[in-house]
Design a protein that fits this description.
6-stranded mixed β-sheet; 17% helix; 4 helices; 31% strand; Deoxyribonuclease I, Chain A
Length: 256
């Protein structure tokens, strides 16, 4: 059984989602000390084999020059990781890669299993464009796709159409996961599910709606772990973590 956690940790700024908390802009520079360790301690209870992180700091002054990806890898006894700054190298958005703090904002996959065949897809529109593709050997090879989609609905719709093509070009069993920012609900991913044959396993959760945001009182489902047919999900749960404005999705699965 493979255990996977997908979590938007919000750069360890510790905001739980109340509107006035976002006014505490100083947390961009001075987040709560020790919050990353609290997240690690909570994760250890679930013993993930794979940890997918959205909004992780790879070494800015915010994280006190600490690469949080390497920190989580070490503290959780993982063996491999892949990380990618979320902004494109081409076009006008490339300037974000030269701004302090922003140039260290990434998404990452950390694993107890070997990672290979890493690819980075850049979606054509939106500020949040990067898609990390990586093969995990657990022990059968599967492909993980980690995304963080746009805030705007029209842009997000175009990104989802691009994801359909990416998924359908992969021959191995697929896990597509991340922060989809589906503010209009899971209806936004109906076309994605139909065109790719990916499965939404949320019905395995003990609640009828798997809301993940805001963590203080979840009412929106923004975070997903979708799987292809050869991946049998045995458990799907939204973990009640108070460390970010999102709550993590936890799944246990076997590969047929």
């Amino acid at each position: 059984m493979v255990k996977l956690v997908c979590y938007n940790i919000e750069y360890c700024e510790g905001i739980q989602g109340k509107w006035y908390q976002y006014l505490k802009f100083w947390r961009i520079f001075f987040p709560p000390k020790g919050l990353d360790q609290k997240i690690v301690d909570a994760l250890k209870k679930n013993k993930p084999d794979i940890l997918a992180l959205v909004e992780v700091d790879t070494g800015s002054i915010r994280s006190r020059k600490k690469n949080e990806v390497q920190f989580f890898e070490h503290e959780l006894g993982m063996k491999d990781f892949v990380e990618k700054i979320k902004y494109p190298l081409k076009g006008w958005l490339k300037f974000l890669r030269f701004i302090p703090i922003l140039r260290k904002q990434a998404n990452a996959i950390i694993s107890k299993y070997k990672i290979s065949h890493v690819k980075y897809h850049m979606l054509n529109e939106g500020t949040k464009r990067v898609v990390i593709e990586a093969t995990i050997h657990c022990p059968k090879a599967i492909t993980l796709l980690l995304v963080h989609l746009a805030l705007g609905r029209k842009t997000r719709k175009k990104q989802l159409n691009e994801l359909i093509k990416i998924v359908n070009n992969i021959k191995k069993p697929v896990v597509l996961m991340g922060d989809f920012n589906t503010f209009n609900g899971a209806t936004e991913i109906k076309k994605l599910l139909k065109k790719t044959n990916l499965k939404d396993n949320a019905k395995l959760h003990h609640h009828s709606i798997c809301s993940t945001q805001p963590s203080i009182k979840p009412k929106r489902r923004l975070d997903y772990v979708l799987t292809s047919k050869k991946i049998k999900v045995k458990r799907y749960e939204v973990l009640k973590y108070p460390f970010s404005d999102h709550m993590p999705v936890f799944v246990e699965f076997v590969v047929k």
